[in-house]
Amino acid sequence: MRAFVLMIAGALLPLMLRSPPPSGSGLALALLGLLSAVSIRTRWFALLALPAALTLAIVEQRLAQRLDPALAGQELAVTGVVVGLPVTRDDLLEFRFRPTVRTGLASQLPDQLWVRWYRDWPSVEAGETWRLQLRLRLPRSRVNFSGGDAERWYFSTGIGALASVREGRANERLHEARGPSVSRIRQHLREALARYLPSHEAAGLVLALAIADRSQLRREQWRALRATGTGHLLAISGMHVGLAALFGYWLTRLASCLVPAVRWRWGLRPAWAGAALAAAGYAALAGFGVSTQRALLMLVVATAGMLRRRALSRPHAYALVVLLTLLASPLAPLSAGFWLSFLAVAALLLMLVPARHRGGWLARFTRLQLGLMVFLLPVTLYSFQEGTLLGLPGNLVAIPWVSLVAAPLLFLGMACWAVGLPADAALFMLSAEALGALGSVLAWLGGVAEGATFRTGRPPLPGVVLGLAGGVLFLLPRGLLPRWPGALLLGALVVPVGPRLEEGEWRLDMLDVGQGLAALVATRHGLLAYDTGPGQPGRWDLVAPVLVPSIAASGFRAPKRVVVSHGDLDHAGGLDTLRRQFAQTRFLVNQRHPAASLPRCLSPENWQDSGIGFRILHPGPGLPYLGNASSCVLSVGSDRARLLLPGDIDTAVEQRLVERGLGRHAILIAPHHGSRSSSSHEFLQAVQPELVLISAGADNRFGLPHVEIVERYHQQGARVLSTAGCGGLRVTSLETGRITLASARRQRPGLWRWPAAHDCP
Q: Lesser CB count within 10 Å: N end or C end of the chain?
């Protein structure tokens, strides 16, 4: 057991590095490990070093496979093969693409590209060979102080570059898919489900449960799953693989009963082999995610023990499966699924002991669900910064229904489809009806307890560790140790991080939303949101992945006010979603056709909050809506330090503000993202900024901020920072008059992180 623990620790330790290791670290560590294996006294170091060397080697290989920054923004004709299952969303098609022709600049491309095809895309299937005109981008993403981390996902899955297909160019299919493959089988099954369930409301749920394709789930279905804590049921978790194994076990056992000689000669061995094959087939259809790998390896270990009639103890089997998963996928711990999956199994092992089997099945099942919720809460809050109070009732309804009704019907349908039996259509329809009924119940449950979802900031790692220790105390058998300290340890998850703002202090978080703008201004007692970031109403926006986690991390449940400077979608794309999310918040909006219930953001409105003044400087009530020129200009702060948020105003509005006595503001958010239509000399001389913050997407197609404007800021003596190079930016004005700065790329380091610009705080 000690050897397992040392090897697991060795595989995990390199992933805790805050920056990429020096080149050759893996090879050097491997040599040290081999040398230390010679002596019994140092063999423990070999057990630690060799798995660490493997992880470091994979890390170095992934870093070497990233796109050369010199190729970013270039267009290339690339010939390659579609890998995996293409995914269709509302406004784009996404798929992995492996270049196969390595000539010229294409020889410098990574092994895998993540391709997006916008508007009017043709049918694209797994295994096809295409020649595509691609615009290349670095695999960078938005980085904020809270929220998701796509860069980590790109790194862990081997995506070396992002690319978009250029319209109107020579994009052509060169060869159809050749030969059988798991991806093609998944594609054919998806097409069959589309034929059988063309307009069924639960078609997306069936697709997610069958092949782990969640791209067709509607927004309201996602909201119901999150509100009830049942999203794991559509993530092809270990439970589903176990159900597939059980299905294969009984199907094989039934078949063996028809051949008595097989049953007499081999006993239950064919049934166990059938269980392993069914589980492996379902895991392959699901794309071999981390949780499916874990469940499949556990089943293989159990089957091997059964066939050899020599089973491992539970702790040894658990440790062996963890180690095998790490050796097969050294970067798996970079995903939340790895920790949630293995911690869930650890919790079940703690709870499923003979002494705990008291009461009826419902009482035992309820205790299991409650124990899992408590134990997984620290990792859930750390990974997603949200939890739900409906997890227990939601899972009490959903797990039995999926396990006993929906999943068996789906498995029977998939088996009939695989062998060509005509019953597949009816079985798929029955499964869809079952999932549709469950979806209605979950939507009702989420609606009855509206607001049951709670959000927090990301807890610190020490708090997560203490929370897990508290969860262990809750799961231990009664009477072994007192449980009340567990509640205290879990309380570490909600301890506020960092100093609280005092009266007269304010904090600005300019969020990294790509090409757009969203900012939060916090005082001691309130929060204001200025603009919502980009989006397409009814289709997509950044409220859930960016704004909501940042609002929760600020310590407030909701902003007191939301100011939307003007109607351009890079500033107002998330307005509708924010209005649904925070119905009690006061909105001030400038749009061409505003809703009747939305007051306009007009001068000279002003208010005070915690000793901080907020004053609208533009537009006046008599002016018509003129797009960028109608941007709401907001001044925030006190005599010690003031902040100016000007939206996308142009030089004409700047001149108007100067003529009306615009005063000094130490911090300025660059008008119109640093374009040449704004930031006139007269305006900058009036504002006299010490710090200019620019919200712009990396390598954006508009070329913002313009180099001439950046030079103008520098000539004014201002320090210039951009979300493109720093990620989210945080400015705190303290009561002493001192201003502190921080950037998300510095605050959230990792070996997968693209480095921050040299001037980032």
A: N
